[in-house]
Amino acid sequence: AQTVTQSQPEMSVQEAETVTLSCTYDTSESNYYLFWYKQPPSRQMILVIRQEAYKQQNATENRFSVNFQKAAKSFSLKISDSQLGDTAMYFCAFMKGTGANSKLTFGKGITLSVRP
Amino acid sequence: EAQVTQNPRYLITVTGKKLTVTCSQNMNHEYMSWYRQDPGLGLRQIYYSMNVEVTDKGDVPEGYKVSRKEKRNFPLILESPSPNQTSLYFCASSSTGGTARAFFGQGTRLTVV
């Protein structure tokens, strides 16, 4: 079974600064995907960024980038130039690349607060 | 617009009164799934469906039922709700074509008293 660990329950960052959210995972799979989801107070689940395990290059989406360390099973999210709208809960998630169930296994989440 | 629609958004009910949370997607996705979100636990899968008439248990299926009579709809049924089913529920859908992109509904906040 896969597990996803987010060890920091809360973080705070000053507006315009950079923050890194940590995530580790455990799996015996070789083919999988990793995700970061954002959940603002509206409760909507918003996909922030996606990484295929077979790709060595780290994914980037505007101000969001990841540091994917496959051997260490680490998948951290870096948010550059933090904005007030980045205040939300962030979930790291894992999905197997094969098999019948495209289940997402989530971490417990981290609450990020961006201070003005 | 591609979307997953859940109803209702909020629901307060009493113990033992059967309820159904509906989920519909307009993307012709084969795969649909239900999750519950609880503080400190993240989201956990309740049930999933690979296609019409094909459903299976996820990690926390006790107390829930589902059906998949049509490709677009995947309702979650609580036949005898209990207070420990008070939670935030999400429906999600995705294509099985290897895109690994899940679309989530808006969530349903359920309170069982």
Spell out the blueprint of helices and strands.
The complex is a heterodimer of chains A (116) and B (113).
Chain A: E1 3-5, E2 10-14, E3 19-21, E4 24-26, E5 32-39, E6 46-52, E7 60-61, E8 64-69, E9 74-79, E10 88-96, E11 104-106, E12 110-115
Chain B: E1 4-7, E2 10-13, E3 19-25, E4 31-38, E5 42-51, E6 54-57, E7 65-66, E8 76-78, E9 87-94, E10 103-104, E11 108-112
Parallel strand pairs in B: 2-11
Antiparallel strand pairs in B: 1-3, 3-8, 4-5, 4-9, 5-6, 7-8, 9-10, 9-11
Number of strands of chain B: 11
How many helices of chain A in DSSP terms?
A: 0
The overall pLDDT average of chain B reads 94
| Beta-strand proportion of chain A | over 45%
What is the helix/strand order of chain A? EEEEEEEEEEEE
Rounded to an integer in angstroms, the radius of gyration calculated over CA atoms of chain B is: 13 Å
Q: What distance separates the N and C termini of chain A?
A: 41 Å
Give the assembly state of these chains.
heterodimer
**Chain pair sharing the greatest interface:** A-B, 21 and 26 residues
Number of strands of chain A: 12
What is the SS-derived class of chain B? mainly beta
Overall geometry of chain A comes to: globular
Helix share, percent of chain B:
under 10%
Identify low-pLDDT runs of chain B. none
Secondary-structure element pattern of chain B, one letter each:
EEEEEEEEEEE
Q: Return the average pLDDT of chain A rounded to an integer.
A: 94
Distance between the termini of chain B: 36 Å
